[in-house]
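Supplementary Methods. Inverse-folding protocol.

Structures were first reduced to a discrete structure-token string of length 273. This string, shown here, constituted the complete conditioning input.
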């Protein structure tokens, strides 16, 4: 998701009408308050790349090119994203860059998830508007139930008629809508997050149900990749290193019930921890 944290906002961003904040900017603002170690690199973080160029999908190629264009202008690659060739050397550079941005990607994902939860809870008011202009429409919270929900953050737009992205090929009408948040609701969320961030560490983890709920949500959000190390990293990103023992115990408890230890051979991993 191209953003403005590293400088001038991208040309494709729409103008923000009075009283509204473009979703991409809301991600930046909320992420910066939610995470003490937010750096701005989060908004250009990509999903991990395969080690071999031969195993790369078209999306991987696109993402790798964006990384090289942004971080390694010294390579002087053609400024055409999507059709460039990769030497073994350049692919290795892109792969290493993607690996170095893994913590940033975790913070980005956590911020996106926070936005979803705030919207579903009625605390963050999201609206859509046709890219061609027109009336405002409510962003429907049930759209977050689609498996492709993270794609809404990629371009910060959605087709309300086909929110799961399955617009038929015969329908060539561009009905995409930009996604905005109301300024008032963003300000309230930022104020609440800033207040929570100022709380002493002993209170920042919340009630006794905080860790069980956190682990449950983590497993739900990562059904095929959930791991103890991933759960630890996500917790550390949001809450710091405190209550590690409680987190590990809860992970073992829930992972055992859901069969994750048996399925992924993590008995040895948890035993060593």
């Amino acid at each position: 998701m191209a953003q403005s944290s590293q400088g001038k906002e991208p040309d494709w961003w729409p103008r923000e009408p009075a009283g509204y904040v473009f979703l991409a900017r809301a991600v930046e603002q909320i992420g910066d308050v939610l995470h003490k170690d937010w750096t701005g690199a989060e908004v250009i973080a990509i999903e991990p790349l395969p080690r071999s160029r031969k195993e790369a999908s078209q999306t991987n190629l696109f993402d790798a090119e964006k990384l090289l264009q942004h971080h390694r202008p010294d390579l002087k690659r053609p400024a055409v994203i999507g059709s460039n060739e990769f030497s073994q050397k350049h692919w290795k550079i892109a792969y290493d860059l993607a690996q170095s941005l893994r913590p940033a990607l975790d913070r980005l994902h956590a911020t996106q998830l926070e936005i979803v939860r705030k919207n579903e809870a009625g605390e963050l008011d999201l609206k859509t508007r046709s890219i061609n202009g027109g009336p405002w429409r409510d962003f429907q919270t049930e759209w977050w139930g689609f498996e492709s929900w993270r794609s809404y953050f990629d371009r910060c737009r959605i087709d309300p008629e086909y929110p799961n992205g399955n617009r038929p090929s015969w329908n060539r009408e561009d009905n995409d809508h930009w996604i905005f948040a109301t300024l008032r609701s963003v300000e309230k969320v930022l104020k609440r997050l800033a207040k929570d961030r100022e709380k002493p560490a002993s209170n920042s983890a919340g009630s006794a149900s905080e860790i069980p709920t956190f682990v449950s949500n983590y497993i739900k959000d990562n059904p095929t990749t959930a791991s103890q190390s991933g759960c630890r990293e996500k917790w550390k990103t949001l809450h710091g290193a405190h209550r590690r023992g409680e987190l590990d115990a809860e992970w073992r408890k829930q992972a055992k019930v859901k069969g994750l230890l048996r399925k992924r051979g993590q008995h040895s991993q948890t035993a060593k921890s």
